[in-house]
């Protein structure tokens, strides 16, 4: 199970970076404001998921 969490955390971090870069790119090219808002909401949600994964991994599989 710890292998799954150790795999999901980098994937989640990469997803956060991709969504962040897409949002910044959309902002700099003067894209629709609704798309920027949607991407930033996705970023916050993904960050929450990654934090839950990290904290869950530390809680369940950390050294005691």
What would you say this structure looks like, in words?
By secondary structure, the protein is mainly alpha-helical. It has helices at 2-28, 33-61. It is elongated. The two termini are 17 Å apart.
Ranges where pLDDT stays below 50 over 5 or more residues in a row are none
The amount of beta strand, in percent, is: under 5%
What is the rounded Rg? 15 Å
Q: Treating each run of at least 4 consecutive H or I residues as one helix, how many helices?
A: 2
Question: Can you tell me the overall shape?
Answer: elongated
How does the SSE layout of this entry go?
Blueprint: H1 2-28, H2 33-61
Helix pairs in contact: 1-2
Feature tags:
64 residues; single chain; mainly alpha
Short description, anyone?
It contains 2 helices and no strands. With 64 residues, it is mainly alpha-helical.
């Amino acid at each position: 199970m710890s292998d799954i969490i150790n795999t999901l955390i980098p994937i989640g971090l990469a997803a956060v970076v991709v969504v962040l870069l897409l949002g910044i790119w959309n902002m700099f090219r003067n894209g629709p404001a609704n798309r920027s808002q949607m991407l930033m909401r996705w970023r916050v949600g993904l960050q929450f998921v990654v934090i839950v994964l990290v904290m869950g991994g530390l809680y369940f599989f950390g050294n005691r």
